[in-house]
Model the fold of this input.
Amino acid sequence: MPLPASAAYAFPVSSQPPPAPEPPALSLTERRKAATQLDIARAAAELFTEFGPDGTTAEDIARQAGVALRTFYRYFRNKQDAVGPLLASGGDRWRAVLAATGPGAALPEALERATVEALSAPDARAVDGLEQTRALLRAAVDDPALRAVWYRVNQESEERLVPVVARLAGADADPLEVRLAAAAATDAIRIALETWAATDAAADGPGSPAELAVRCLRHLLGGMRPSLTADEN
Done:
């Protein structure tokens, strides 16, 4: 997808952003815990897709994941909460792509490129992942608890995005504008996925999550008048 520069975008990426801090290495126990949580999340998503949240119990999810019920409740408060790690994994991937952006690009272009890369569906596995997200978002329409998990995941993703945007924008960036950019980018992807989930559009091409998210980004960021660049006088 072409990503032309736009004069409406005033967010610059610093020509030499400081290197992203290396995340602390996870211990073997932490890696096992994360793997178990993701296994449970995938089991929950599969059952929700087939039977819906109302037709699925925590016992069903634990059995599908091959864990004891007490293990399920060690990690999750309820059955809807169990899909949180799966819904959050897309945001984790997107932030990692954005954090790897090299110097010299405008921030909106960097956001767009990271969005396209994270939401593209180049193979069957990626398509299956997006289709699973679509099924969960459709189920969330009639399930307030599942919808609350989706909104919580997005809020947490926005908070984690702020330092990534701040690093790319440079030390002189206005903190307010950085937070606005992080909020706009997070909402662009959320709205794109929700809009796509309500349709039968394919996972790529017109009407896809990537195409819709880029449109949302351009609308949301294009209307801002940030103070990250020079003088407006």
Q: What stands out?
A: The mean pLDDT is 86. The two ends are 35 Å apart (CA to CA). Residues 144-169 form the longest helix (26 residues). The chain is about 65% helix and 0% strand.
